[in-house]
Amino acid sequence: MKKLIYAGLFLLFIYSNSAFAQCGPGNNISQLITSNSILLNTSTVEVGQTFIATCSGNIESITIRVVNVSVDGDHMLTIYDGLNATNPLDSVIFNLTSLNNGIDALVTFATPIPVVSGNSYTFMNKFVTGEASYFISDSDPYAGGRCEFHVIGNPNFEVVPTYEFIDFYFIVHYQDNISPLAVCDNITAELDSTGNVDFCPCLVGSGSSDDSGIFFLNMDSTFTCNDIGSNVIVLTVTDPSGNSATCNATITVIDLLAPEIICPSNQDTTVLAGNNYNLPDYFASATITDNCTTPILNMSQNPIAGTQLAEGVHTVTLTAVDEYGNSSDCSFDITVAGTVSLEEFDNSLLEFYPNPVSKDLKITNLTGINLEQATIYDMLGNSIITFNLNEAVTEQKLDLSKLNSGVYLVVVQTVEGSFVKQIIKND
Questions:
Q1: Is the model's pLDDT at 17 over the cut of 50?
Q2: What is the CATH number that goes with domain 260-338?
Q3: Would you list the domain boundaries of the chain?
């Protein structure tokens, strides 16, 4: 006997799945075929499919797709207990029009229908109003169950040319009450140059899963310098049905970035003959920044401040260490040169006044020689401060207000020689 297949409404995908204790999307039953049909029947027909429940749980909806068929009108979808379509469990009425052709329509039961793993059930659909076109095929394309049809009334058959690619499709959706599997991995997160780190939760929850194949991860994934060390966080895994599970992970936040230190530029200095340069502390002249430690308190200078440097080129290294042990350094050169002897000076052509001086020291140039700079030395020969002089000005003024009280030497350099004067600085 030839079989009727409702070519515009349903096709059930059957997966060969083993029985599960609970139901989820992984147990959904579905199938798709293409039927080459040879006859057309315009009478009312109820068609469907038998299937075996792959799990114990609830069926909440069925997806319907209509392709290349007349479907206008109201439909009734019914699920029966058993293979004979005589014991209905529930029905739902829905409407389809030709506008639905090729588009999935989700038909949902008001109350999910309970089923038992391994038991047989029958899925049937019929028109309530209107009528549809049905294609008759003499083969049963379904797998995992038997194609069912009931002819209602007296069918009128009409021979038509072969109509290829008449597709119909449906999926039985099991209600998803299964929580995802939440699996956490402990990770280490390194702070960036701004003292922050923000990472994908997938680094923590990549081992998580859900029977739907789709899940969402949510957790606090932003950390700062205040979080350095171990942080216990909660990862929440949620599936599309709203089921969720959690697990705990330890996020170890670390700082591996060393401070950034910028040294002063290379230095040139002069001392009087027979004296050394007293090396000062240069950290006040350096620029030091760090992503987490402010201020940097662990600093060192090599050679240390107070070291006596003889004439020559000396390398000074500054080192900064943050509170997490990350260190960096920079270096610059100090050239000690230009030593002069007091015997070389002829002071008769320059006047220095007032002396003693409390603020401004004036220098009158009677030589006619352009002056270049004036350097103030203490009595140990250390260069204290240098002034650039205006070559074309007869009288120069040096602001000594910042000097401590004491005895100093003023060395004035020109293109032709140097001049020296001992002065007394008063408050």
A1: no
A2: 2.60.40
A3: 3-174, 187-254, 260-338, 341-425
Q: Which two tokens stand for residue 33?
A: 């075929």
Q: Would you say residue 224 has pLDDT above 80?
A: yes
Q: How many helices (H) and strands (E) does the chain have?
A: 1, 32
> How would residue 330 be classed by pLDDT, with cut points 50, 70 and 90?
very high
Please write the tens of the pLDDT for every residue from 139-184. Answer: 444 456 666 766 666 555 454 444 444 445 668 888 888 889 999 9
Identify any residues that bridge with 288 across adjacent strands, giving them in sequence order.
Answer: 261
Architecture of the domain made up of 187-254: Sandwich (2.60)
Predicted local confidence at residue 338, as pLDDT: 59
Span 310-319, pLDDT tens digits: 888 999 999 9
For the chain, first and last CA: distance in Å? 125
From residue 172, alpha-carbon distances to 59, 76, 168 in Å are 7, 15, 14
**Is residue 217 within 8 Å of residue 235, measured between CB atoms?**
yes
What DSSP letter does each residue of 33-94 carry, written as one string?
EEEEEEEEE-SEEEEEEEEE-SBSEEEEEEEEEE-SS---EEEEEEEEESSSS-SEEEEEEE
- Three-state DSSP state, 99: helix
Question: How long a stretch of residues is the chain?
Answer: 427
Phi then psi dihedrals of residue 317, to 5 deg: -115, 130
Per-residue DSSP letter, 181: B
Q: What is the pLDDT of residues 342-361, one digit of tens each?
A: 444 455 678 889 999 999 99
The two structure tokens encoding residue 34: 């293409």
CATH class for the domain made up of 341-425:
mainly beta
DSSP 8-class letter at 182: P
Decide if 260-338 and 341-425 have a common fold.
yes
**Cα 202 from Cα 197, distance rounded (Å):** 15
Residue 247 CA from chain centroid, whole number: 21
Scanning 155-248, the segments in alpha helix (DSSP H) are 202-205
Radius of gyration of the chain (CA): 47
pTM comes to 0.58
Put the strands of the sheet holding 73-81 in their side by side order: 88-96, 73-81, 120-127, 44-52, 147-152
Contacts of residue 244, defined as CB under 8 A and 6 or more positions apart, other chains included, come to 179, 180, 236, 237, 238
Q: Please compute the mean of the pLDDT values over residues 196-204 and round it to a whole number.
A: 94
